[in-house]
Automatic annotation (TrEMBL):
Recorded name of the encoding gene: mgtE
GO cellular component annotations of the record: plasma membrane
Pfam family, one: MgtE_N
Protein family according to the UniProt entry: Belongs to the SLC41A transporter family.
Protein name (Swiss-Prot/TrEMBL): Magnesium transporter MgtE
Length: 452
């Protein structure tokens, strides 16, 4: 449902399009001036790519940075393509190190050295440190700008440190506590510091720390951070030394990004990474056509199965009528299982060691669903055609649902073991697999029951 804000933004987009084409800059300024930074960002996401830079340049400098930070990394990359080098350099320098790295991941590799060269020595060092971690790791999404304290410091010393670094730190509400070797030994909140006596030591106030390796998957670290409700999760190197923090808002951003990708791939398309209305048609085509080719090739297995059992169909033509029902039911059952298991894996409810448990549970679920559908479908078919056809349909529904649920349940776990995105192994491939195997099961049962 549209909210008043989204409706207002959509109306503004419609209003300024003619002004942009006519290069009536005064009218554009009048249209966007009343909007908040959030609304302007939403407006830019709805504009064609070639109009982004025109509208963005008309924003006041302070508001422009706020708007830029609210855009997705892919939209930021699109906008940079339309800006001058000096504008790009200034924008890049104003970003936090982790946001710079996220943006660099969306830009052509050849552009990275030029942007890094325009930074100050300190900012270049911070950004390069984050860039040094593998893609997909939380080290590449952490902020190296934090405030820490020492276990032997007093409350007064810790608060003084907060005041000195407050302008540069990503957050000050949770402070990692370090020992003499910079290893994380605990955390202390700003609330506890402000409510304690100045002479108290940090060792008296600190709580046990939850930390994560910089080499861990960004999605896993973000899920852990949000599940624990942490304002900031300390990120450590292989020796347990503090190298950065993952803030709660960055964790939420990572999860939104990952869930968008998973949702797209489960539907058989590549994620757009930019709003739909701002995506060129050629990009929409590219995001879908590869998967369609893959699935079309997979669908030839179904055709081969049907051609192999063509003599069986010729003897009992009624069998052909139920093919869409059976393969559709099997595909839907497998997709349901895959979606459920993929979600449970993302939440950490299922681990690789649970493969056998998942297999048995989904076999039980699939057989129960198949028995219920088989009784109903078989009875109706027996009344309309004949009892033997009804028995074939009932047994096939039982077998296909059991097979589909089992395969759909374990395929995401197999994908994770092979270090492949589970979403890729989900709905499209499972549907194709179940279509082919379901037909084989169907015709084998038909041959056995009908003696043909």
């Amino acid at each position: 449902m549209n909210t008043p804000q989204t409706t207002e933004v959509a109306d503004t987009v419609a209003d300024i399009q003619p002004y942009v084409q006519a290069k009536d800059f005064a009218a554009i300024v009048d249209a966007i001036s009343p909007l908040t930074s959030e609304q302007v960002a939403a407006l830019l996401e709805r504009l064609p790519v070639n109009h982004l830079a025109i509208v963005y340049r008309l924003l006041p400098k302070e508001k422009a940075l706020e708007v830029f930070e609210r855009l997705s990394p892919r939209m930021q990359g699109d906008l940079i393509d339309g800006l001058q080098d000096s504008e790009v350099t200034a924008l890049f320098a104003d970003l936090d190190p982790d946001d710079r790295v996220w943006l660099l991941d969306e830009l052509p590799a050849a552009l990275a050295p030029r942007l890094l060269h325009g930074l100050s020595a300190k900012d270049r060092e911070l950004t390069s440190g984050v860039l040094g971690y593998p893609k997909g790791s939380v080290g590449r999404r952490m902020s190296p700008e934090y405030v820490s304290t020492r276990i032997d410091h007093t409350v007064s010393e810790a608060l003084d440190r907060v005041q000195r670094h407050i302008a540069d730190a990503e957050t000050i509400y949770t402070l990692p506590v370090l020992d003499g070797s910079r290893r994380v030994v605990g955390v202390v909140s700003l609330r506890d510091l402000m409510g304690s006596e100045p002479g108290q030591t940090i060792s008296e106030l600190m709580q046990p720390a939850k930390t994560t390796s910089a080499y861990q998957s960004a999605e896993e670290a973000a899920r852990r951070s949000t599940n624990l409700g942490l304002l900031a999760l300390p990120i450590v190197d292989k020796e347990g030394r503090l190298v950065g923090i993952l803030t709660f808002d960055d964790a939420v951003r990572i999860l939104e990004h990952e869930e968008t990708e998973d949702s797209a791939r489960q539907g058989g398309v590549e994620p757009l990474r930019r709003p739909y209305l701002a995506t060129p048609i050629r990009t929409l085509v590219k995001s879908r056509i590869v998967w369609l080719f893959v699935l079309a090739i997979g669908a030839t297995l179904t055709v081969q199965v049907q051609s192999h059992f063509e003599p069986t169909i010729e003897q009992v033509t009624a069998l052909a009528l139920f093919v869409p029902l059976l393969i559709g039911t099997g595909g839907n059952t497998g997709n349901q299982a895959a979606t459920t298991v993929t979600r449970a894996m993302a939440l950490g409810d299922i681990q690789p060691r649970d493969l056998l448990k998942v297999l048995l549970r989904e076999l039980g679920v699939g057989s129960s669903l198949g028995a219920a559908l088989g009784i109903i479908g078989g009875t109706i078919t027996a009344l309309v055609f004949e009892p033997r056809i009804g028995l074939v349909i009932g047994l096939t529904l039982l077998a296909v649902c059991s097979l589909a649920a089992t395969v759909g349940g374990i395929m995401p776990m197999v994908a994770r073991a092979l270090r492949v995105d589970p979403a890729v192994f989900s709905n499209p491939f499972i549907s194709t697999f179940v279509d082919a195997t379901g037909l084989i099961v169907y015709f084998l049962i038909a041959r056995a029951v009908l003696q043909i």
